[in-house]
Structure to design on (1380 residues):
């Protein structure tokens, strides 16, 4: 093995990086070009997917020089959907698309040094990215530049070669990790989405995505028949409305014959929906589903609903959807966020996953880091998703994990699906933060295999993204780069939880931007369930949201024995303690500490962890190119500053109620509560009153 | 012993202090009122000083009830100047003023629980505060509000009862710690100081200070004969000029018969002086001294001179004054700042202290914290002054300490004196920071006894300032308050050195305000010796100012064996290393670390020490009143923030040259160098370009 790092220690710099590896902007993602060995590919099928598989193998083969690899379509009961079987020299699948997935897997295993053999089947049929992209090019909760699909101004409907190249790169990246669908626009959808002009652009995008096996979907605005069709109503039982949707579906399928279907956010956060006309979610969804059925299209109907009148937001989706269980057409699938609240750094799973028996559910995960530091903070989400997917709902007895109740293992479903809200934008590195790429990667990998451990995902991703691309393993790379960086990733989500909302606290972020702490935010004019005090309930007597029988009784929405476990202050996992319980400041934790003290230690731990990430990253400088090193280093620096902002702001705020000292082995706050309340951590300027 | 603290732990707050002791604004200083016991005072003399002594004893006596204390004027060879001998029941002195000092000492010993007996003589005859107060009420380098002596506007010449009361409180505080003189105005003096209108106000002040034994002095502008007297010159050899000064002196002494004399800053930083007319400092000083002699007045002539042309500012005072040694009249005393540069947190002593043999020198210390954090930071200066006074100059062989060569022990001097630049202003607590009072106190105590250890000063001051005033010792007060607070004070100056300019670095502060780091400040238009790079000399090859024979050879101004010790890179104390040497970044320190690394650790140590001060202070909350607790806590919080600003700013700046990583067990910088360079740490706003 060649030594490729010879830098004397004295020129390893903290902020000026003289490094051997070439600088890279990260645009290649985990698909960095390699120096391939000659290989002979034998493929019976000539589909688009297979043609791409052949090309990828020829360009990426690092196995035995001169080897022959055979790609075969087979009948094999061990293979499901687009699953495949690979060996060192063969790929078998039931579909051309399966062969393509097999090719990417073969190359990945070569590059990561894993054993190359075995069967791999997808956990879900549909593995879909949700782009919250607006037609003007902006992205709701997007932190990596403008949309790759839409742009504003005069050129909004021009499709350039550069567009097509970018969309192709996007499709390739998705397919390499098993994603097979993309919703191209924001769930808060513009009626204009379905205008002929925009549909032309949808066709252009779909034409680029199709060869890679990525189906195109659109979010729709339920009132589109009014806004775009000039009808007086959007009542789903109105014949003219139904006719309008039929015609529109025909128009879409003419342009995009394999169009996937609609994603619908209805009667949620001000969006129109069937309830506006006295109809149920089921009536609204079924109207659309019945129209799409003949096109093999589906309706993904979001369960993210809550209104200002209800006492506990966490209970509402269950309350609205359980009565409809069994009332949905078989090409409707209900899309449910992982937690009952809203993509928090930690929540228990939504109780719907343990409740509906006749209605298929698809988990909605958020890849973009709305509540986990945008693209400023390093937070690897595979650990969070692993925790979620492994959660046992007890729906049909033990081992009714979220993974199994959604992937068809427990219930017989026509469609199984999983969605992730994308973190992709026009930034050179796609995701804003180099490590945010790992979340895109992780979503694909865990959507394909919903029991894949986060540690394996991190291991693969680090190797593919950072291993020197000449195929040589740098001396000490595994010990000095892979292991510490992988560990940093695996620790990162818990760090965010600790410095932002430990012990079951939730939704205490600053208003609007959801960046930085805002436990104090509660203007009188704002609806209560949009203000943090609604969630943390801090007062002189204690802190936390009582969701037991003496409170909102949200625990009752969980299956036994979970309901009793969550309801019991002794048995409730401490990570969910203040989610389910309102407890006095001197409540004794299992480690003997009182609640207030433990809260302080958790916040400090979070900050200390980020400081350690900074050190970890600085130490690996010799093993990474200058550009990525510096960009990540700069973001970690900011993360550390902001972790301190969280810790100090939250502790000073809660201390007003706890009236207890911060334990003396914890760092004192750097600023006053007044400072934190008036400073916007996004800009470090004074908060702009909204 | 009564328990006086009964607060349950649960209401001991970090930021909201519910505390038993009454809130206090600190205005009483170390002279807090007590509940006295009856005492009979027998005093032969009836002087003003003795009358005050009697009153103080009656109001402050906490000794045996009904005791008789006898105040006697005696002849006793063991007593010098205003020295005294005290026992439990007697005070003896040669002067009434000595009896007054004895009374304060007796009361102090009672309150601090020290043995009450023994002789105490002042180290210096003249123990003088220099007020850098301008006639418009502002104070140069003052951080505790406006001047207590001067005010601007229509009422500038009105003397109110409130003025007199404040001046009396000021006089009492000074006398209680042995100070016996005050220069009422800035050394950068206005010619208007000597106008008849202002002299009337001087008389009013002097009349209030006199009973306490405080002599009044004034700073003069050497060009006053031109500016105020309308003469064409201020040449000290010009007869009209001399006549003008004579008349002015007569005017002054008519108003203030015991006027102390003039303090003169001449030919320094743009001030006029005898050199403007081709005369020497000695000619200028002697002209004035000869006029004041018949009035028993003195001239304090400052040696703080340097000009932009000379290569090493540290050498200039020596260069200008050594040729004049022996040429000054016997009522001239040369006032020399402790270090050769300018009141830095650490400098070696000025070489003049080890050089002049025929000219008496008086040390000038700076009580106000120009370079040690203004009134925002806790920095107890007695440790710095102890280090300075103990420094051995080797002037007349071993044990020629600065203390001994200035207090008459080594040389036979007509006058011995010491000056401190005051930190007093109109703030309720006089000094801005409650702990800055300790520096006023320390100056007085060490001026009286120039071998008094800083630890003793701190011990006394903490007891007098914070011990519950009913005379009961709070349970655990010594262990839980006195000891940790005293230790914090003793560690505080070294903490400032570490986080601002360790290892002999100096004058790397931000321009103008001298608050926060400014190692980068070097606009082309500014004279080099007013920019930090002149002092730190950082470049790729190393850092530090070479003052050895291969550099400026400033070491040669020190007496052997000091000159050789400082010149030797092995023998030079590491605290002065970069003051005397320019060394490569990998220079090995005695602890085995390389210079760059040690610099990093020192900065981090400084920051960590301040964090510990915060914890120390928070822990003592039960033992201190709410107001002082919160005010000190708030200042410590800011000090911590600013220590981090220093550490990060300096390390990132120097790292540009060292091109080395910050050791991985040290916290990463919170912001970028660019941020620190453009942010004013006083305001945390963008730097205003000056």
């Amino acid at each position: 093995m060649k030594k490729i790092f010879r830098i004397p220690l004295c020129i390893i710099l903290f902020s000026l990086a003289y490094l051997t590896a070439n600088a890279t902007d990260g645009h290649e993602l985990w698909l960095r070009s390699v120096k391939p060995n000659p290989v002979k590919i034998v493929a019976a099928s000539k589909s688009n997917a297979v043609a791409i598989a052949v090309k990828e193998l020829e360009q990426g083969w690092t196995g035995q020089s001169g080897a022959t690899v055979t790609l075969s379509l087979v009948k094999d009961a061990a293979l499901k959907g687009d699953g495949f079987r690979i060996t060192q020299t063969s790929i078998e699948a039931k579909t051309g698309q399966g062969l393509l997935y097999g090719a990417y897997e073969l190359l990945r295993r070569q590059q990561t040094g894993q054993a190359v053999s075995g069967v791999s089947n997808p956990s879900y049929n549909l593995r879909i990215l949700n782009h919250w992209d607006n037609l003007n090019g902006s992205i709701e909760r997007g932190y990596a530049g403008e949309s790759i699909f839409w742009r504003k101004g005069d050129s909004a409907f021009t499709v350039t070669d550069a567009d097509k190249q970018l969309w192709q790169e996007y499709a390739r990246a998705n397919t390499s990790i098993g994603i097979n669908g993309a919703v191209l626009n924001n769930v808060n959808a513009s009626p204009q989405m379905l205008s002929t002009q925009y549909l032309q652009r949808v066709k252009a995008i779909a034409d680029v995505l199709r060869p890679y096996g990525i189906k195109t979907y659109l979010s729709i605005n339920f009132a589109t028949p009014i806004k775009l069709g000039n009808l007086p109503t959007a009542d789903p039982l109105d014949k003219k409305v139904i006719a309008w949707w039929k015609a529109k579906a025909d128009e879409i399928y003419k342009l995009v014959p394999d169009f996937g279907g609609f994603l619908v956010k209805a009667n949620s956060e001000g969006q129109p929906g069937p309830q506006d006309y006295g109809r149920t979610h089921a009536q609204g969804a079924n109207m659309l589903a019945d129209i799409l059925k003949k096109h093999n299209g589906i309706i993904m109907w979001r369960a993210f609903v809550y209104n200002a009148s209800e006492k506990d937001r966490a209970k509402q989706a269950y309350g609205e959807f359980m009565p409809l269980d069994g009332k949905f057409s078989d090409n409707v699938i209900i899309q449910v966020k992982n937690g009952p609240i809203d993509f928090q750094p930690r929540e228990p799973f939504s109780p719907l996953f343990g409740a509906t028996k006749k209605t298929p559910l698809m988990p909605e995960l958020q890849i973009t880091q709305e509540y986990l530091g945008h693209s400023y903070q390093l937070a690897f989400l595979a650990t969070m998703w692993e925790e979620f997917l492994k959660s046992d709902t007890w729906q049909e007895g033990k081992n009714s994990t979220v993974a199994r109740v959604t992937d068809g293992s427990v219930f017989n479903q026509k469609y199984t699906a999983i969605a992730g809200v994308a973190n992709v934008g026009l930034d050179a590195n796609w995701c804003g933060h180099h490590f945010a790429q790992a979340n895109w990667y992780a979503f694909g990998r865990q959507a394909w295999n919903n029991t894949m451990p986060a540690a394996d995902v991190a291991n693969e991703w680090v190797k593919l993204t950072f291993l020197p691309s000449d195929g040589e393993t740098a001396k000490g790379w595994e010990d000095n780069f892979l292991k510490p960086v992988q560990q940093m990733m695996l620790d990162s989500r818990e760090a965010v939880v600790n410095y932002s909302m430990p012990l079951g606290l939730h939704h205490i972020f600053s208003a609007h931007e959801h960046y930085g702490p805002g436990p104090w935010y509660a203007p009188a004019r704002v609806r209560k369930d949009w203000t943090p005090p609604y969630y943390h309930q801090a007062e002189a007597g204690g802190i936390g949201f009582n969701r037991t029988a003496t409170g909102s009784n949200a625990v009752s929405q969980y299956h036994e024995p979970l309901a009793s476990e969550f309801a019991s202050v002794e048995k409730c996992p401490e990570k969910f303690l203040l989610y389910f319980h309102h407890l006095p400041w001197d409540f004794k934790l299992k480690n003997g500490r009182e609640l207030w003290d433990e809260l302080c230690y958790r916040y400090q731990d979070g900050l200390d962890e980020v400081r350690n990430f900074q050190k970890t990253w600085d130490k690996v400088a010799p093993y990474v190119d200058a550009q990525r090193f510096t960009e990540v280093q700069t973001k970690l620096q900011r993360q550390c500053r902001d972790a301190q902002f969280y810790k100090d702001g939250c502790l000073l705020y809660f201390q007003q109620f706890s009236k207890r000292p911060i334990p003396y082995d914890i760092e004192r706050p750097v600023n006053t509560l007044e400072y934190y309340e008036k400073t916007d951590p996004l800009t470090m300027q004074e908060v702009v009153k909204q």
Remarks:
- The CA atoms of residues 448 and 651 of chain B lie 41 Å apart.
- Chain B touches chain A at residues 10-16, 18, 586, 611, 614-615, 618-619, 621, 634, 636-637, 640-641, 644, 652, 655-656, 659-662, 664-665, 667-673 (CB under 8 Å).
- The two ends of chain B are 60 Å apart (CA to CA).
- DSSP finds 19 helices and 15 strands in chain B.
